[in-house]
Amino acid sequence: MLAGCGALARFTVRPAAATPEMMAEAVRRFVGEAPVRRGRVKIDVPPIVENGNTVPCVVAVDSPMTETDFVKAIHVFNEKNPLPHVISVKLGPRAGRAGFSTRIRLADSQTVTAIAELSDGTFWSGDVDVIVTLAACIEETTH
Amino acid sequence: MTDGGDGSLPRHAATAAAGLGLVVVLLAGAWTAVLAVEIPLNQRKSGSEFISPDTRAMQDDDTENPGMLSVLDGEALWKEKAGVTQKSCADCHGEAAVSMKAVAARYPAFMPALGRPVDLEQRINLSRVADQKSAALPFESKDLLALTAYIARQSRGMPIAVEENAQSKPFIEAGREIFERRQGQLDLSCAQCHDDNWGKRLAGGLVPQAHPTGYPIYRLEWQELGSLQRRLRGCMSAVRATPYEYGAPELVNLEFYLMWRARGMTMETPAVRP
Amino acid sequence: MARALINVPATAKKGEVIEIKTMIAHVMETGYRIGVTGKPIPRDIIDRFVCTYNGEEIFSAELFPAISANPFISFFTVATESGTLSFAWTDQHGQTQVQTAQIVVE
Predict the structure, then answer these.
(1) Could you give the domains of chain C?
(2) Does the pTM exceed 0.80?
(3) How far apart are CA B147 and CA B145, in angstroms?
(4) How close, in Å, is residue B215 to chain A by CA atoms?
């Protein structure tokens, strides 16, 4: 019985508000009323993830990255974590290539979206659907 | 796996359900075999072959392997003066790449002075206390993990070669007995999963053969480096058995058996595992 | 000082696009995990990462709890001149850790 309580204590509680609507609101805060076009942004996450704690995430944007035509920023959002925002990066013409990679946490199977802001003020997006499997053996909080 | 609406199926229930499912399968197949059958030596595979390509890529690149952060910490600790002697490991052992080459590959090892085997963590502490005259590092502490990872890293690429002789054999056999014994509320033995059902799926992951080729490992589930004993304790909790305490002779015996079972396989420390 | 692992090519040709890999030891505690006491473990994350190249900012990132522990970030820059790449990680308490790497550009 005590072991069961310990296992319950290990479970992460998610606030009720984590929703696609929250994500849409977070996106609006960056994008304003500007339209977001699908394209030019590729977000790569393994389609089936072994562990939601550490998910490789590679974002690449099709851009010449010249002084006059470059990616200013890339924002990554999710729809089911407690917070919709994952990371925002600022780039410039000195980047040479528009992209970055990192490792993210995904609380559940969901869609992850990357939005790029270009120097001409336009916004482009790409997304990926990810299946997050649970680890087979969950250990107690006190290991 | 059924979803609780917002995806919040309690993980312990999922594990228990998966475990019960496996028990049902195993009970149904109980007529086929009672004794676990050892994996033939040439069919043994490292855990690296049961992980996704992305996790494998993380392991294989030292510039991307999170376990390397601990190895670097260990390298710094190796050179740090400590204890009454104010000597560092390096002061006596010199370059770890030379003096510690292939050492981790032969632990656990029988210590005649103690009349029992010790694992690498315990061996480090024995030296700290007796030779360096500094305090033993607590099991699973950041520093002990770092030193263990640094030393074990010096065995990477080398074959596991724990010594089986008249003195060590009883302890290896004691470890085998634990490996083959059903335990916990789920009444499962290590052998039932890792000898008899490796390669099959359990709750979204593949069951590996359980060879400790890469310890201490960076486990994605832990988001940090951890020892073989931590992993064994986690597995015991998962079958709802009371885990042995860190440093318990039963755990050392089990480690010894597992390393003997993996004899000849290549060390991969620091491995990355889900 | 948290352990950091930085990978910058030691040398590069002028105009070449190089990849820079960084990783730093940090728990990135989300603030949502329940501890043994039954209460959430407080949030503790690195929330800002900045890279400068001979003093000029070439990359920056705002991090959220969804970034994994021991944050790994890799990005690109054009090798323009020899000098110092400086990496600064700042946590939510405002503490900053800086590390540098040298590059020779021919």
Answers:
(1) 4-105 (2.60.40.10)
(2) yes
(3) 6
(4) 16
Name the one residue in this structure whose structure tokens are 């040298």: C102
Range of the domain at B213: 45-60+161-273
Q: Residue A98 in contact with residue A70, Cβ under 8 Å?
A: yes
Residues forming beta bridges with residue A131, ordered by sequence position: A48
Are B180 and B267 found together in one domain? Answer: yes
In a domain, B228, yes or no: yes
Encoded tokens for A85:
């925002």
Nearest-Cα residue of chain C relative to residue B63: C7
Residues B117, B148, single domain; the answer is: yes
Mark whether B166 and B256 lie in a shared domain.
yes
Question: Does C40 contact A96 at a Cβ distance shorter than 8 Å?
Answer: no
Nearest-neighbour CA in chain C from B42: distance (Å): 37
Higher pLDDT, B12 or B7: B12
Q: Is B235 a catalytic residue?
A: yes
**Are B54 and A48 a contacting pair at CB < 8 A?**
no
Tell me: pLDDT of A135 over 60: no
Q: Are B202 and B194 in contact (CB under 8 A)?
A: no
List, for residues B94-140, the tens digit of each pLDDT value: 999 999 999 999 999 999 999 999 999 999 999 999 999 999 999 99
Question: What was the ipTM of the complex prediction?
Answer: 0.95
Residue C29 · residue C70 · CB < 8 Å = no
B18 at A interface, C-beta within 8 A: yes
